[in-house]
């Protein structure tokens, strides 16, 4: 593999022939991102900015710094000394992949070990110059690598103090292979194995414990009862333990949010924190003047923050009048004798627990300065969409409607349709749902947008994600929604850290309101499947155990069956004769506890999966590259009548399926069955 880079002057432009691309790349000093697309570097996978080499014909982009890297075709790397790593300009997997060092997803170049399925993206692979050889340590069962500078690539917590990694670190490459991940701050890795400490204990030295003791599972000794994360110092004689947070705690702390200094109370005692309202069992900080006891971490609580669940800035207070209030995140009682976050807007009674407001799932960790103008923040959601020009308007009384527009995500003008009967096979190119009025359409090509989708804001704050999201278009690339895990074409709200669909309100009927919870595992009432513990779900505000996973919470309230005149309605209960519990599409039995779609006019009942299909959010007629499993492209089709059998499983391909139209193949296959075609 020729990894050299040649540059020449041609027509006054810098030209580069890079080994990863078959065309010449031309240099652009300042690359600007258009509204239609965000371009990523094919080497590092990160967003293109600054000096760039580009092939406009292929939409192929390289940062100048990445294009000029000296990359070897094979690499002997200390993170994986067992085998050589091979450079791949394209992912050896279908779709994206994750780096085994930093755990971040990537779409760029990869150093890959095929036998071990071990992968490093370019930035992590090039850290080897700052890595010291393995050395043994009593803190861990494997030797550790010392990394002087990891370029902020590792976005994980220290296994010792459980705080985010920064600066020089120690890393265990053996644990990375088993997905256990062991990393330490330099200061945590170099702690003494025994200390004498003034913390309410002077009789014996405290002994370092890097992990729980391996006693029998029913052991009731003191060490087995300790609930800790990370490293601790312990005296088993006196039943004393000291966390690393305690070990590093200063005697006094000053903070701009409180006028007096805080003094460490080095005693193991129970207390209720005046700032957050939760209990503590050791080393509080005290303000004797104000008669306050607080956790060390609560001293630095920001006064004003913005969270994903509320549109106003909320403020911390520990002196609200006592009253009965429910937290608007977890819907449990807030004890206003202690600290909480509340909204200062005159017409808003929003209040939340401190631990709910500062959860990483809803807060980005940034404080809002005093005097912040919320009006500029609100304008993000309401003012600007991707309609770039209004060609024609029409007035209806006091309401003015744009009847012909230009939209950034289509080349031609779009015309508004207000009403009329619709064929149920048209798709909105924004949300991929069945098209319904009112909608915009192109007279030159089959492009449709619901009026609501055309007017979606460019930027949006969303309860599913703590960063600002930007509306992008993915009609040619399939993405996986980070919220509901569905495959999608069309519009999506995107963050640099991942994708999130724009679902917000839950329209599913239930006698009580539903609220969003993060990192929650329970059986869904609609499909009865148990969600993964890192997923989100909707729960009942009255805590009646009613739960919906995001896939079921975002089910459309209506669907269509073949070319029937009437729509099917999402139905949550089934009181018909058990002998009638069959799906009219697949003809298999329906479980009476599962939600289904039903038409009262036609008396048709369908499984929700059958009504919506396997690929409800992919564009019918688009081509899919799955050449890891088949040598030709597939076309997404929607089978209505005379549905063909699947090439792999033999079951009928009802609804959406993949089809190879090449004359030598000419077969259909379910999406999940394509993985078995090799």
Blueprint (SSEs and pairs):
Elements: E1 6-10, E2 13-17, E3 25-31, E4 50-55, E5 60-63, H1 64-67, E6 74-75, E7 85-88, E8 97-98, E9 105-106, E10 110-113, E11 118-121, H2 122-125, E12 131-135, E13 144-147, E14 169-171, H3 173-177, E15 183-185, H4 186-189, E16 194-195, E17 206-209, H5 222-225, E18 232-235, E19 240-243, H6 244-247, E20 252-253, E21 262-264, E22 271-272, E23 279-280, E24 285-287, E25 292-294, H7 296-299, E26 304-307, E27 314-317, E28 324-326, E29 333-335, E30 340-343, E31 351-352, H8 354-357, E32 363-367, H9 374-382, E33 387-396, E34 399-407, E35 414-417, E36 439-441, E37 448-450, H10 451-454, E38 459-462, E39 465-473, E40 479-480, E41 487-488, E42 491-495, E43 498-500, E44 514-517, E45 537-540, E46 547-549, H11 550-553, E47 558-559, E48 568-571, E49 596-599, E50 604-607, H12 608-612, E51 623-624, E52 634-639, E53 655-660, E54 667-669
Antiparallel strand pairs: 1-2, 2-3, 3-4, 4-5, 6-7, 7-10, 8-9, 10-11, 12-13, 13-14, 14-15, 16-17, 17-18, 18-19, 20-21, 21-24, 22-23, 24-25, 26-27, 26-32, 27-30, 28-29, 30-31, 33-34, 34-35, 35-36, 36-37, 38-39, 39-42, 40-41, 42-43, 44-45, 45-46, 47-48, 48-49, 49-50, 51-52, 52-53, 53-54
Characterise this structure.
- By secondary structure, the protein is mostly beta strands.
- Among the domains are: about 15-70, Wheat Germ Agglutinin (Isolectin 2), domain 1, CATH 3.30.60; about 75-125; about 195-215 and about 225-250, no CATH class; about 250-300, Wheat Germ Agglutinin (Isolectin 2), domain 1; about 300-380, no CATH class; about 385-455, no CATH class; about 620-675, Wheat Germ Agglutinin (Isolectin 2), domain 1 (2-Layer Sandwich), CATH 3.30.60.
- It is about 10% helix and about 30% strand.
- The chain is built from 12 helices and 54 strands.
- Strand 38 and strand 39 form a beta hairpin.
- It is globular.
- The model is unreliable at about 1-10 and about 500-505 (pLDDT under 50).
